[in-house]
């Protein structure tokens, strides 16, 4: 049965998209529960900095009543994007960049993902997020409702379950047989702490936002975060098990560094210092994507949003779209007469939009790291 506050909505995953959905529903007086496998809010780092776009992420934050608070936390200067020559480190002009290699200004200020998630979490009614509640699967109950199964043996019934649980969603199999596939591109992440104090020369090289050098199917990116940290990514095409193929142990940071420096041999020494002087280890971030387009036939009482629905390369659209998905679904649930109508209206809007964005992201990735046969 429905509660007095509308249909029972259970969101699986307390990422940006799931939290945006919960916030907008609560603004409209609707009840919602968010089930999250992490044991607590600060259980793990939340990743780097995000540029929040006016027509997607900012639209969602406006719907959530959080746009002004976002702007107070955001870093407009973080929009700075500098492209440099890999060998000389001199600025490279190009489409959308001026003669100093800087991207033309826009209105997509940066914010650390953890800050943005915290903003959304703090906007929710206490107890909305149930931590340490890992969902292992879902079963239809035959009347359009679903039962979620939890790792601790418990269950949760809902009129609508929403898979906001990321790339390896436990709910996606109820709608689609699709699984993420490896693109052939790996980002190896490392970082520099207290960059302005401990690494002032590198801090000046990176600037206020993001630095990019790319050539011959590989790239170095450095991204300033809001806490004085610089995230560094070495990106290239390689087998999924590239460390094993190179004879490098996963826990041998010195060997990984040596291998990366060899891979980027001949590049400007100032750029290579981003790899030589890192303060943290090296973590592989292989790029997986869902098929494009990823669609499914409507199934009563269940849907997906964010990476669970449209996993795409991490080139600036995924988090924005996840939040917009959440806001759009919430509005549909408020506007439409029933859950089925709301989910159909949401999917009719979200699926074509995400397919266009996924193609764009794949094209961007191929432009940045061209396939070897191109």
From TrEMBL:
FAD binds at residues 51, 113, 307. The keyword Protease does not apply. InterPro entries: FAD-bd, FAD/NAD-bd_sf, TetX_monooxygenase. Residues 9-243, 302-358 form the FAD-binding domain. Keywords: Cytoplasm, FAD, Flavoprotein, Monooxygenase, NADP, Nucleotide-binding, Oxidoreductase. It is an enzyme of class 1 (oxidoreductase). Residues 96-112 have a biased composition (Basic and acidic residues). It holds the Pfam family FAD_binding_3. It is found in: Cytoplasm. GO terms for molecular function: FAD binding; monooxygenase activity. Its EC number is 1.14.13.-. GO terms for biological process: response to antibiotic. Gene3D superfamilies: FAD/NAD(P)-binding domain. GO terms for cellular component: cytoplasm. It catalyses: a tetracycline + NADPH + O2 + H(+) = an 11a-hydroxytetracycline + NADP(+) + H2O. Its main location: cytoplasm. Its cofactor is FAD. NADPH binds at residue 44. Residues 36-56, 86-112 are annotated as: Disordered. Monomer. Consists of an N-terminal FAD-binding domain with a Rossman fold and a C-terminal substrate-binding domain. HAMAP family: TetX_monooxygenase. Belongs to the aromatic-ring hydroxylase family. TetX subfamily. PANTHER family: FAD DEPENDENT OXIDOREDUCTASE DOMAIN-CONTAINING PROTEIN (PTHR46972:SF1), MONOOXYGENASE ASQM-RELATED (PTHR46972). An FAD-requiring monooxygenase active on some tetracycline antibiotic derivatives, which leads to their inactivation. Hydroxylates carbon 11a of tetracycline and some analogs. This is Flavin-dependent monooxygenase. It comes from Streptomyces gougerotii.
């Amino acid at each position: 049965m429905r509660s007095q506050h509308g249909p029972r909505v259970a969101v699986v995953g307390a990422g940006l998209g799931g939290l945006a959905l919960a916030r907008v529903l609560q603004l409209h007086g609707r009840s919602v529960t968010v089930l999250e496998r992490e044991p607590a809010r600060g259980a793990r780092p939340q990743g780097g900095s995000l540029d929040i776009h006016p027509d997607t992420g900012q639209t969602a934050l406006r719907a959530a009543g959080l746009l002004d608070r976002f702007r107070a936390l955001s870093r407009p200067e973080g929009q700075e994007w500098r492209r440099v020559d890999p060998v000389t480190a001199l600025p490279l002009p190009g489409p959308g960049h001026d003669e100093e290699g800087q991207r033309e200004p826009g209105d997509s200020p940066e914010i650390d993902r953890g800050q943005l998630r915290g903003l959304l979490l703090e906007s929710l009614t206490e107890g909305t997020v149930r931590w340490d509640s890992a969902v292992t699967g879902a079963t239809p109950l035959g009347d359009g409702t679903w039962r979620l199964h939890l790792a601790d043996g418990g269950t949760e019934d809902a009129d609508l379950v929403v898979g906001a649980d990321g790339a390896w969603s436990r709910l996606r199999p109820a709608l689609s047989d699709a699984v993420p596939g490896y693109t052939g591109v790996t980002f190896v992440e490392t970082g520099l702490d207290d960059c302005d104090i401990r690494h002032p020369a590198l801090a000046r090289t990176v600037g206020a936002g993001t630095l990019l050098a790319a050539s011959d199917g590989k790239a170095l990116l450095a991204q300033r975060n809001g806490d004085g940290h610089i995230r560094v990514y070495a990106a290239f095409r390689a087998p999924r098990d590239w460390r094993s193929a190179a004879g490098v142990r996963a826990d041998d940071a010195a060997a990984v560094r040596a291998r990366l420096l060899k891979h980027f041999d001949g590049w400007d020494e100032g750029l290579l210092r981003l790899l030589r002087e890192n303060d943290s280890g090296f973590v592989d971030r292989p790029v997986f994507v869902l098929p494009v387009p990823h669609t499914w036939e409507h199934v009563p009482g269940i849907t997906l949003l964010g990476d669970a629905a449209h996993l795409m390369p991490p080139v600036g659209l995924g988090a924005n779209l996840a939040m917009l998905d959440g806001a759009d679904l919430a509005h549909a649930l408020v506007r439409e007469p029933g859950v089925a109508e709301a989910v159909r209206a949401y999917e009719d809007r979200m699926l074509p939009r995400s397919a266009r964005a996924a193609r764009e992201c794949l094209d961007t990735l191929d432009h940045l790291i061209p396939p070897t046969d191109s």
